[in-house]
Design brief:
single chain; alpha+beta; Aminopeptidase; seven-stranded mixed β-sheet; 7 strands; 28% strand
Protein backbone atom coordinates (compact mmCIF):
# COMPACT_ATOMS: atom_id res chain seq x y z
CA UNK A 1 0.00 0.00 0.00
CA UNK A 2 1.20 3.50 -0.81
CA UNK A 3 -0.06 6.86 0.38
CA UNK A 4 0.20 9.73 -2.05
CA UNK A 5 -1.16 13.18 -2.80
CA UNK A 6 -4.45 12.78 -4.64
CA UNK A 7 -5.00 14.30 -8.07
CA UNK A 8 -8.12 15.76 -9.66
CA UNK A 9 -8.33 12.72 -11.95
CA UNK A 10 -8.75 10.55 -8.80
CA UNK A 11 -12.09 12.20 -7.90
CA UNK A 12 -14.33 9.48 -9.34
CA UNK A 13 -12.44 6.69 -7.56
CA UNK A 14 -12.35 8.67 -4.30
CA UNK A 15 -16.12 9.09 -4.43
CA UNK A 16 -16.50 5.32 -5.06
CA UNK A 17 -14.38 4.71 -1.96
CA UNK A 18 -16.60 7.06 0.09
CA UNK A 19 -19.75 5.37 -1.19
CA UNK A 20 -18.41 2.01 0.00
CA UNK A 21 -17.42 3.47 3.38
CA UNK A 22 -20.81 5.17 3.86
CA UNK A 23 -22.68 1.97 2.94
CA UNK A 24 -20.60 0.10 5.54
CA UNK A 25 -21.35 2.75 8.15
CA UNK A 26 -25.07 2.59 7.44
CA UNK A 27 -24.94 -1.22 7.73
CA UNK A 28 -23.49 -0.67 11.24
CA UNK A 29 -26.24 1.88 12.08
CA UNK A 30 -23.79 4.79 11.97
CA UNK A 31 -25.48 7.85 10.48
CA UNK A 32 -22.49 10.21 10.49
CA UNK A 33 -22.31 10.40 6.68
CA UNK A 34 -24.81 9.96 3.89
CA UNK A 35 -25.20 10.60 0.17
CA UNK A 36 -24.87 14.37 0.78
CA UNK A 37 -21.61 14.34 2.75
CA UNK A 38 -18.81 13.96 1.93
CA UNK A 39 -19.70 15.15 -1.54
CA UNK A 40 -17.85 15.75 -4.78
CA UNK A 41 -17.68 19.54 -4.29
CA UNK A 42 -15.95 19.22 -0.92
CA UNK A 43 -13.49 16.59 -2.13
CA UNK A 44 -12.74 18.59 -5.30
CA UNK A 45 -11.91 21.59 -3.11
CA UNK A 46 -9.56 19.39 -1.05
CA UNK A 47 -7.91 18.18 -4.26
CA UNK A 48 -7.46 21.71 -5.59
CA UNK A 49 -5.97 22.76 -2.23
CA UNK A 50 -3.57 19.80 -2.43
CA UNK A 51 -4.53 18.66 1.08
CA UNK A 52 -6.11 15.31 0.19
CA UNK A 53 -4.16 12.05 0.26
CA UNK A 54 -5.15 8.58 -0.85
CA UNK A 55 -4.14 5.10 0.22
CA UNK A 56 -3.68 2.96 -2.85
CA UNK A 57 -3.27 -0.80 -3.18
CA UNK A 58 -2.70 -2.42 -6.58
CA UNK A 59 -3.65 0.90 -8.24
CA UNK A 60 -7.00 0.95 -6.39
CA UNK A 61 -7.92 3.82 -4.07
CA UNK A 62 -8.86 2.11 -0.80
CA UNK A 63 -8.76 5.06 1.61
CA UNK A 64 -8.45 8.80 1.88
CA UNK A 65 -7.76 11.63 4.29
CA UNK A 66 -7.73 15.42 4.17
CA UNK A 67 -5.00 17.07 6.22
CA UNK A 68 -4.88 20.85 6.60
CA UNK A 69 -4.74 23.62 9.18
CA UNK A 70 -8.42 24.56 8.93
CA UNK A 71 -10.70 24.02 11.90
CA UNK A 72 -14.34 24.90 12.31
CA UNK A 73 -15.02 27.93 14.52
CA UNK A 74 -16.68 25.72 17.14
CA UNK A 75 -13.26 24.12 17.77
CA UNK A 76 -12.45 27.33 19.69
CA UNK A 77 -14.76 26.15 22.49
CA UNK A 78 -12.48 23.16 23.20
CA UNK A 79 -9.71 23.40 25.78
CA UNK A 80 -6.90 22.00 23.65
CA UNK A 81 -3.77 20.67 25.35
CA UNK A 82 -1.56 22.08 22.60
CA UNK A 83 -1.39 25.81 23.28
CA UNK A 84 1.18 26.48 20.53
CA UNK A 85 -1.41 26.70 17.75
CA UNK A 86 0.99 24.55 15.66
CA UNK A 87 -1.40 21.80 14.63
CA UNK A 88 -2.88 19.96 11.68
CA UNK A 89 -6.53 18.99 11.42
CA UNK A 90 -7.69 15.67 9.99
CA UNK A 91 -10.95 15.64 8.02
CA UNK A 92 -12.92 12.96 6.19
CA UNK A 93 -10.77 9.91 6.99
CA UNK A 94 -12.39 6.99 5.18
CA UNK A 95 -11.57 3.46 4.08
CA UNK A 96 -13.37 1.32 1.51
CA UNK A 97 -15.51 -1.13 3.47
CA UNK A 98 -13.82 -4.28 2.17
CA UNK A 99 -10.51 -2.98 3.58
CA UNK A 100 -11.78 -2.24 7.08
CA UNK A 101 -9.71 -3.99 9.76
CA UNK A 102 -6.63 -4.02 7.52
CA UNK A 103 -4.93 -1.07 9.28
CA UNK A 104 -5.48 1.33 6.36
CA UNK A 105 -6.97 4.00 8.64
CA UNK A 106 -4.10 3.59 11.09
CA UNK A 107 -1.55 4.00 8.28
CA UNK A 108 -3.33 7.14 7.04
CA UNK A 109 -3.31 8.59 10.56
CA UNK A 110 0.40 7.72 10.97
CA UNK A 111 1.00 9.48 7.65
CA UNK A 112 -0.77 12.60 8.98
CA UNK A 113 1.21 12.48 12.23
CA UNK A 114 4.53 12.08 10.37
CA UNK A 115 3.62 14.97 8.08
CA UNK A 116 2.91 17.19 11.09
CA UNK A 117 6.08 16.05 12.87
CA UNK A 118 8.26 16.76 9.81
CA UNK A 119 6.78 20.26 9.65
CA UNK A 120 7.59 20.92 13.33
CA UNK A 121 3.93 20.96 14.30
CA UNK A 122 2.88 19.97 17.80
CA UNK A 123 -0.40 18.13 17.44
CA UNK A 124 -3.20 16.67 15.37
CA UNK A 125 -6.82 17.65 15.95
CA UNK A 126 -9.99 16.06 14.62
CA UNK A 127 -13.62 15.46 15.39
CA UNK A 128 -15.88 12.47 14.97
CA UNK A 129 -19.55 11.74 15.42
CA UNK A 130 -20.47 10.81 18.99
CA UNK A 131 -22.57 7.90 17.69
CA UNK A 132 -19.77 6.32 15.67
CA UNK A 133 -18.43 3.73 18.15
CA UNK A 134 -16.00 2.30 15.58
CA UNK A 135 -14.27 5.67 15.03
CA UNK A 136 -14.33 6.58 18.73
CA UNK A 137 -12.62 3.32 19.68
CA UNK A 138 -10.16 3.65 16.77
CA UNK A 139 -8.95 7.15 17.72
CA UNK A 140 -8.61 6.25 21.40
CA UNK A 141 -6.69 3.08 20.51
CA UNK A 142 -4.12 5.04 18.49
CA UNK A 143 -3.49 7.53 21.28
CA UNK A 144 -5.93 10.38 20.73
CA UNK A 145 -7.53 12.05 23.74
CA UNK A 146 -11.19 13.03 23.73
CA UNK A 147 -11.27 16.64 24.93
CA UNK A 148 -14.87 17.71 24.55
CA UNK A 149 -17.95 17.91 22.38
CA UNK A 150 -19.09 20.36 19.72
CA UNK A 151 -22.29 20.92 17.76
CA UNK A 152 -21.21 20.79 14.10
CA UNK A 153 -24.55 19.98 12.50
CA UNK A 154 -27.70 21.29 14.17
CA UNK A 155 -30.24 18.53 14.51
CA UNK A 156 -27.58 15.82 14.70
CA UNK A 157 -25.91 14.40 17.77
CA UNK A 158 -22.75 16.09 18.96
CA UNK A 159 -19.25 15.50 17.67
CA UNK A 160 -16.31 14.71 19.93
CA UNK A 161 -13.01 16.52 19.47
CA UNK A 162 -9.79 14.55 19.76
CA UNK A 163 -6.17 15.62 19.97
CA UNK A 164 -2.81 13.88 19.93
CA UNK A 165 0.31 15.70 21.04
CA UNK A 166 3.35 14.97 18.92
CA UNK A 167 5.85 16.79 21.16
CA UNK A 168 5.86 16.71 24.94
CA UNK A 169 6.70 20.43 25.12
CA UNK A 170 3.52 21.75 23.46
CA UNK A 171 3.04 25.01 25.40
Amino acid sequence: MIIRLARIKDLHDIMKMYKSCVMGMIAHNITQWDNKYPNQEIILKDLKNKTYFVAEKNNEIIGGINIDKLQDEVYNSIKWNDKSEKFLVVHRLAVKEEFWNQKVGKKLMSFAENRAFKNNLSSIRLDTYSENPIALKFYEKIGYLRLGAIDLKPGKKEYYCFEKLLFSNSN
